Amino acid sequence: MFKNYLIITLRNIKKHKGYSFINITGLAVGMTCCLLIWLYVQDERSFDRYHTNANRIYRLELTLRLEGQEKKYALSSHPMGPTLANDIPEIQQSVRFWFIDPVAMVQNRNHEYVAENVIFTDANLFDVFSFSLHQGDPNTALAEPYSLILTQAMAKRYLDTGDPIGQTLTIRWEGKDIPFHVTGVLEDIPTNSHFKINFLASYTSLNSMLSQEVLQTWVDFKTYTYFLIEEGVPPERVASKFPALIEKYMGGFARQLFGPDIVPEDILQFHLRPLTDIYLHSDVEYEIGATGSITIIYVFSVVKMLILIIAGINVVNLATARSANRAKEVGIRKVCGAGKISLIGQFLGEAVVFALLSLGLAMVLTELLLPAFNAFIFKELTFDLRDMISFLPLIILVGLGAGIYPAFVLSAFQPAQILRGAQRTTTGTRSPLLRKGLVVFQFTISSILIIGMLIMSSQMNYIKHKSLGFDQKQILLVPLRTVELRNRFPALKAELLQLPEILKVANSNNILGRRQQRLGEVLCQREANPGQSGFTIQFMRVDEEFIPTLGIEIVAGRNFSKTFATDVESGYLLNETAVKKLGWASVEEALGKELFFDLEDLRGKVIGVMKDFHFAALHHPIEPLVFFMSNAPMGWASMKIHTTDIPGTLASIQEIFKRFIPDYPFAYTFLDDRIDHLYLAEHRVQQIFGICTALAIFIACLGLFGLASFTTEQRTKEIGIRKALGASVMDIVLLLSKEFSKWVALANVIAWPAAYWIMNQWLQSFAYRTEIQLWVFVVTAFSTFVLALLTVSWQAIKAALTNPVEALRYE
Predict the structure, then answer these.
(1) Residues 160 and 112: beta-carbon distance below 8 Å
(2) pTM of the model as a whole
(3) Which of 89, 456, 528, 751 has the greatest number of C-beta atoms within 10 Å?
């Protein structure tokens, strides 16, 4: 029986090639899009789940509350991990990660220094995380000071041939060359990890690299701490013990800083975040690596299913529309003894065969498109047999879902009525409301996607052209990675300014254009008295050339100047937001006011106020900011250049740097490129969303084309009579297009409010955003009308141009 059904299905596919092509192509395109998004979503959701103890590993995070301000940090301090693990029995082990900031310089085989991230971690790393050593003993590899583990890729790049164990690798940090002994080679870690590892150094090395004061203080938040909690212990039980420990270890410091009546828990709280939630659910600052977004995962998951549903709707619509053509087949089968159940099984089987054929085509398309898709999203996704098996139940479900209604419609025909012709006159219009409703649904989804794509484009365009409050064009940023180079900055600056293309050169400890507010934070108070209210404020150390180089506007007071010796010791520049936060009525009132900062007990007066500018991504509102002047060597050079010969200018700058640091590669970036990179994820989402929108529209129009073909075929005689009575080609086209136009109009009416609400929610993730304007909805309505009319008109014009004689001979 199944063989018979399969043969009949294949014969029908061969006989009705156009109908089969629309169904299979529509489903295949929908499945291809669904497969690619599914692979992407699966990869995003798999982050950090490869660790054996993933469900028991938690990261310690902090929340700081001051003056109604709440900040969340992924950071902790050096002693927190071991101390909390010792005091809380439910914590089995703790592991810390400390990064050399910003980078370390690692000497390669050619005795050149290359910037690399070196992570210091505890010796029990392998007891908590499922990292594997290709060579070395995980129990002892990080036990001794100056022990170093590196990945296989780094071993090939930096070490001599032969056994890497025991070789020495020199790391230059803070002007010192420190030899590290290679004790292990790490297998390259999976890409679905929330932070990347190239070099791991023993944490005990820090005992001689950092001061004991830094290693023992509880308020130097620069470490990442992870806990392994006992099996079956809820994290809430561990977190409930944090307040008492905050009081024990930080209570005295908090009262010394904020007064004797302060409750430490009101200012500082510890939290535990599951390891598997870090990548997609992080909402903290100073994240250890790039993160994803669970919202984007939800959006893509919904879009994936909607595209698949749109493709399935085509099968339902065309099957019910063609039901009249299969009425006689059903009647004969029933007369010959076929029951309703067997007929339902036959038609469901046909739908599943369509789905499986479409899946085969979709798999081919996926394999062809996957390399380009990987390059686009910067991943290394693969599609194999396991993925197909995982995806197969969904495809069968789609086939059954698309075929179930047509199967019940066709199996319900009465053989007596069919064979005398009565059923044939009604089956073609048996389900007009359903077909109309499904077409309306298709175009409603398509309209929502178009509106979403246009609003995303509008927001990205707004970001691109919004003034950030400083000059970002042709600002070259160069890291000064060695102490020697920083100390020689005045001489370096003098030589750079000899180049006519360089207008200004400035020095700073940080740079603008970060996704999060990560310039640095310090506690700010209006009085240097314990108990005085305060708040955290972003800060940068700059020289007197930084503000003119970046074109930052001074709205009151003056810039730093070397002619005022006190500027270095006690002169501050605030932004307008900081002035408001400090409670002064105007920027002029702030001038000359005293401020106290807990950074090295700095105290001094405000000498100037800067106009607010966006020193981080537009996702965040502008926060209070203070500039300190520094004559000490700092790690970044900012250059304002004016030239059309960028490569030639860079070559000249590189030549100057090579004379100062011949062993170091010249590294640079442009400020506008860094700012563009802040929105790379949004641009990528916008582009993927645009592709999904185009595919959804294509599939919907493909189904509309099939319905238009069927409708035109059913009205062939009517068209012939109308033409014989004098109807023009335009009259026929309008006649056949009118009904479909009403469906598209209704779809837009439904789509507008839904799209407005959805996109308004998305825009809330930006502190600065564009307005949703009427033109977006008008363009969407016009686009869907034009696409629908073009789709329908092809068949309508073809029918209108047919000779009426041929039409009246029809059947």
Answers:
(1) no
(2) 0.82
(3) 751
